[in-house]
Amino acid sequence: MTKTNQFQQLWDKGEREEAVKQLAAYLQHNEHDLPAYLQLSTYLTALKDFPQAEELLQRALSVFPNDASLRYNLGTLYYVAQDYTKAIPIFQELVQNEQMADAQYMLGEIYFRQKQYQLALAFALTAQQADPTAIDANQLCGAIWMSMGNFAEAAQYYRNVLDQAPENVQANFQYGLTQFAQRQPAEKYFNFVQKQAPDYFKQQKQQLTDIERFLDATKDDHQDE
């Protein structure tokens, strides 16, 4: 068993602080172990200990200058911390120099959060085309198309997710929304989500209400004509 696997076992058992403590101690004596830097930075980011994660990654980059994986983790740290002005140039550089599909995806996520939908879509589609079966990229494309009001396009990407993961709760709900918005049968998708994840269904139900209002308004507009 490798050292990184030992730390991962602690993390998976819920002993997260101990995993971080042991991994940090290990790195003090093994400063050229790149996977260990990546692993610890991921843990610290997950724990939202952003200052420690940033300090660690900057130290790692002094040992492995411009390593793409370290740069990606640094960009992800800034993304999670919602410091998009620092995250964007890192991912842009990775796209330009490394043609990294994951960086394309992250730029899509950032621009989506900033409601720059056209820009978000360009990056999300590129990431999805690099791996048409990627669940996260397909979900992002679907979400962007939904936000732009294009339910037919969104449906295609959520359908891609369901082809890979039929029990994906989020994809079932969102695909159901696309069908409902197009006045197609959607009940089985909502019923599945309500049964499998009732709390999630309650949290997301407002989206269904919003689309109902949109459809009612559209119907009224047509009647007025």
Written description of the protein model:
This protein is an all-alpha fold and 225 residues long. The protein has two domains: 1-83, Tetratricopeptide repeat domain (Serine Threonine Protein Phosphatase 5, Tetratricopeptide repeat), CATH 1.25.40; 132-225, Serine Threonine Protein Phosphatase 5, Tetratricopeptide repeat. It is 81% helix and 0% strand. The chain has 13 helices and no strands. Helix 5 runs antiparallel to helix 6, helix 6 runs antiparallel to helix 7 and helix 8 runs antiparallel to helix 9 (135-147). The termini are far apart. It comes from Lactobacillus selangorensis. This is Tetratricopeptide repeat family protein.
Structural class: mainly alpha
Low-confidence stretches: none
Q: With helices defined by DSSP (H or I, 4 residues minimum), what is the helix count?
A: 13
Please give the CATH class of the largest domain.
Mainly Alpha
- What overall geometry do the principal axes of the alpha carbons give? elongated
The biggest beta sheet is recorded as: none
**CATH fold category name of the largest domain:** Serine Threonine Protein Phosphatase 5, Tetratricopeptide repeat
Helix content: over 70%
The tally of strands reads 0
Organism: Lactobacillus selangorensis
InterPro entries: CellSynth/LPSAsmb/PSIAsmb (IPR051012), TPR-like_helical_dom_sf (IPR011990), TPR_rpt (IPR019734)
Keywords: Repeat, TPR repeat
Protein name: Tetratricopeptide repeat family protein
